[in-house]
Amino acid sequence: MQALTLVDMGFLYTETVTSPKHVAGLQIFSTPENYEGNFSRDLFDNLMSQQDVKKPFNQKLKKQLTGQFFWQEDNKLDLSYHVRFAMLPKPGNEEQLLSFVEHQHETLLDRSRPLWEMILIDGLADNKFAIYVKVHHAFTDGAKANQLLMAYLSKNATSPMTAFWAVDRPQKERTAKSALSRLSDTTKTVTGHVKSIPSLTKLTTKLLFQATNMYKADMPTPFMAPKTPFSVSPKRARRAAMTSLSLPRVKTLGRVTGATINDVVITVCDMAIHNYLKTRNVVLTKPLVAQMPISLRDASDKESNNQVAISLVELAYAGERPLERLMTVKESCKKLKNEAKLLSKEALTSYTLASQGLAAASELLNLDTVLPPMGNVLISNVPGPSKALYMMGAKMDKCFPISVLPPGMSLNITLYSYNGSIHVGLVACRSALPDLTELADYIDDAFKALEGEVLDSAIASVTDHINLLSVSNRNVTIKEESVGNMIKTTTLVNSRRKVDHEDSRLCETA
What we know:
The protein is α+β, with helices and mostly antiparallel strands. It contains 12 helices and 15 strands. The strands form 3 sheets. It has a 6-stranded mixed beta sheet with strand order 5-6-7-2-13-12, with helices on both faces. A 6-stranded mixed beta sheet has the order 8-15-14-11-9-10, sandwiched between helices. A 3-stranded antiparallel beta sheet has the order 1-4-3, with no helix packed on it. Helix 8 (247-257) crosses helix 9, helix 9 (261-278) packs across helix 10 and helix 9 packs across helix 12. The radius of gyration is 31 Å and the shape is globular.
């Protein structure tokens, strides 16, 4: 059996009926042209025929008396429970799809079974279908989920399809460890956390001094964010929304301004939230604070479940212009990166466990009406495939992440890049944000506003530069003309002097 880490178990111990801890993906496909028969039904039958469920999808939880959770193989796995077929009523529009997904996303996964489910959703308009997959956060983080769930897709439209649960994945050989070996591993883990105490203490001291206005740290102090209508512990019902941005256009803004893709999309989300709040007569005097995941996963690590830390980043003030906001967010993200570099992996993990644990305790004790929120929104950006992918000939058009709500907050915005687009998935508490699709529209508007101001500023800068070059060129021309006139004048003067000299000589001779 494989033991869960403390971070993995944290998602289990803080899970409640009103706060499920699973993440999901909504993939939308186009049915192959001229396909004879019912493609969605044939695809589902193909999936269900692959009954050999491999690790990690055949593992379920086992809890010991000590409270420690382990993964163990489920020898009686019922695939028909985990994989299902659903049909939307006509007309099969986006609103109906989101309504279906919302109800699926608000229900807990069954802990007596492997912690994942998949639903093939037929009946979408324009000859499309969707696949909704959800997995428990104790099972995976965003980066690993992307690796696992993309396994049944191919770069070639004609390639055969293997269900993601039937894919052979290399597994490290696990040998039975002696008590001495287990003690050694535990000692190494404890030693790592002990070594992180000085840097963690230093960070905590800086944040405490910052809370009393005696010091300015590069990271916001937890539980100092402004109150918003969605800075509350979520109820069970969910809202979901989605929109998309052009990845090349986002990259262009980044190149023009010297910002990263992450800086640009965070700024767009910040602008959208402020615009949404403004329409509800909520004007903040302090910047929003976003929770941002930091990946701690080594490039070679394909087995660990959660290798992520959660940090805070202060966004921009309400009155700042779009380009000014981008520069503010860019600087805040830069400071956060610098602060994170000073901390070890163990220190970042300990900081995450402490801060998220306090937020979870506040949520369980219903203290969100008394205490300031830890943050206002969780914003995550997961990179995906850059080229189009297919499943049994069906092209995946879009893929939207639908994530988890952190303790004490009712809004999550997760972005996923795929095939030239950044697909934005929003999830919220239904009572706190009943009109979430409106916020998704504000994301589109915010991107256009930021793009317009950046490009206008770039055009103005280029125009000024061209004018300077033109003035410089004119100065060169004037200088050349002046030098030419001077040479001509000098030549004439010299010629005149020569004539005068010759005339003088003639007079003398005469």
